[in-house]
Amino acid sequence: MSRPSLADLERIAREIRGEVIAMSHRADTPHLGSALSCVDMLVACYFSGALRVDPSNPRNPDRDRIILSKGHGAMALYAVLAYRGFFPREELLTFNREGSRFQEHPGPHTAPGIEVATGSLGHGLAVGLGMALAARSLQKNYRVAAIISDGECNEGSTWEAALFAAANKLSNVIVMIDYNKWQATGRSDEVLALRPLREKWAAFGWDAVEIDGHDLKALVEFLDAPASDRPRIAVCHTIKGKGCSFMEDDNNWHYRVPTAEEVEKARKELGLA
Fold this sequence. Notes:
This protein is an alpha/beta fold. The protein is built from 10 helices and 7 strands. A 5-stranded parallel beta sheet has the order 1-2-3-7-6, with helices on both faces.
């Protein structure tokens, strides 16, 4: 697959956002704002060509592993996987229905492309480190990419994993933090003192940078950067509800579900209607 242009990636991200908003409305499902903030990171991982993914062979032992640790953003993951060709888009219509393999939080291997069950926050990174260690033991050169939330940086398990990765020089691990500045009940930096987040990860032994989490060019450059002797992390500044003016940075959309009229309004803002 040839690598898509930046304009292509931006178009795909808009379409994914439109799909996610429609899914939330159809299934009467919350966490829409959190799903919209991580769309660009997922698009960079699955569509840019920076990581080795193959929808026709999703269990290839040499594939790069991608973990959405913030499982409550599953709508974005499902939409990205469908648009990338891991399964038919029509299956998204079953989202959150009884018996569907696409529930509010991802289950392990319930659908092609889903690596692990996530939803209980603070565990995706640790699972990814296990995969990275396995690559070393098996002498394989795949990488492990994890997208974690800023709220997960409240979890002790996250920082234990951070120390472990640095101690073991797991340079095949790359992490992106969806730093949208909100948690379910308040501002992330007010619930716990996260700032300065990049400096904290650097102090834990990581090669840490800060980027705009909606700048697809910057995201792809981060994924493309050559490995160092340390695990790498990007603190990605994002906006909860990104893409719709009436949702952006409004924490009500952690739980609110859009009406049919709001779905249409969002589609117009995204240039899809």
